[in-house]
Amino acid sequence: SGDLAAVMEALIAAVRAPKVKQRFDEVQRWACKAGVALQMEHYTGLLEACDAASDWKRAVQLHSELKAAGLPPSVESYQSLIGACEKGRQTELVIRAYDEMKNNGFTANAALYNTLIRACSWTKTSHRRAEQMMKGMRDDGFEPTLTTYNALLHVYSRAGMLAPALEVLQQMKHANVRPSTHTYNMLLQAGDGSNQSSKWEQNLAIFDQMKASRVPPNAVTLNVLISTLERSSQPTR
Questions:
Q1: Phi and psi of 112, rounded to 5°?
Q2: Mean pLDDT across 97-115
Q3: Could you tell me the pTM of the whole model?
Q4: pLDDT computed for residue 106 by the predictor
Q5: Among residues of the chain, what percentage have pLDDT more than 70?
Q6: Which of 12, 25, 58, 232 has the smallest number of CB atoms closer than 10 Å to its CB?
Q7: For every residue of the chain, which 3-state class applies, written as one string?
C-alpha cells in the first residue's frame, strides 16, 4: 500500500500542472479502484488545482467530499476554495466559504482579503460587504495595498458608484499608494456607469487628474471617455 500511496502522490502532483484539469476524474477513479483513501493533503492539492484552473464547481464538490470523509478543512483548503469561486464569479459561495472558515477558527491573510473584496464586484449589491472586508482587513492589522484598493474600486466601478470610488482615490493619496492606469480606468468606469447628469464633466476631471499625476492612459481609458462623451452628447476632445 506504500507504493500505491506514492503513486497517488505523483498523480496529485500531476493534477497541479497546467492544462491537465481532465485528470481530476482519473485521479479519483484510480484512488477508488486501488483502495487508496484520499487524505487531507490530497484534497489540498486537488483544491489548489481547482483554484489554478478556475474550476469552482469541482472545488465545491471536493470541499463537500472532504467534510463527508470526516476530514477537517484547513486554512489552505479554504483559500483555494475561495480563490476558485472568486475566479468563477460566485460571490455568494465565496462569502459562504469565508463565513464557514471564520466559524472554524481561521483568519484571513492580506492576500485572501484582496480576493474576498474582489469577489464582491461580481454582485452589484455586495459593495457593503466589500467595505466590511476592507474594515476587517485593517482591524486585523493589514495595510491595504494597490491591489486592495483596486479590488474595492472594481466593486464600485461595476456598481456605477462614483462618489465612494473617488473617496478610495483620496484614501490612496493619504496612504501614499500611487494609483495605476487600472485605478483611473475603474474610476472612469464608475463615472460612466453612474446616474449623474454631469458624469461627462466628472470623467474629464478624472482624466485631467490622471494626466497631472503622470499616469499613462491606455486604450481602455480612451474608450471609456469616448463612451461617456457620446452618451452625454458632448464633443470628444
A1: -70, -35
A2: 95
A3: 0.81
A4: 95
A5: 83
A6: 25
A7: CHHHHHHHHHHHHHHHCCCCCCHHHHHHHHHHHHCCCCCHHHHHHHHHHHHHHCCHHHHHHHHHHHHHCCCCCCHHHHHHHHHHHHHCCCHHHHHHHHHHHHHCCCCCCHHHHHHHHHHHHHCCCCHHHHHHHHHHHHHCCCCCCHHHHHHHHHHHHHHCCHHHHHHHHHHHHHCCCCCCHHHHHHHHHHHHCCCCCCHHHHHHHHHHHHHHCCCCCCHHHHHHHHHHHHHCCCCCC
Residues constituting the chain = 237
In one letter, which amino acid is 195? Answer: N
Q: How many CB atoms are located within 10 Å of the residue 72 CB?
A: 9
Confidence class for position 2, pLDDT limits 50, 70, 90: low
Higher pLDDT: 37 or 116? It is 116
Note whether 116 and 78 are within 8 A (CB). no
For residue 148, CA distances in Å to 15, 25, 145, 179, 216 come to: 30, 36, 5, 12, 21
Check residue 236 and give its pLDDT. 52
- For residue 99 the three cell numbers come to 463565513
- Residue 205 pLDDT more than 90? yes
- CA Rg value for the chain: 22
Calpha distance 9→150 (Å, rounded): 38
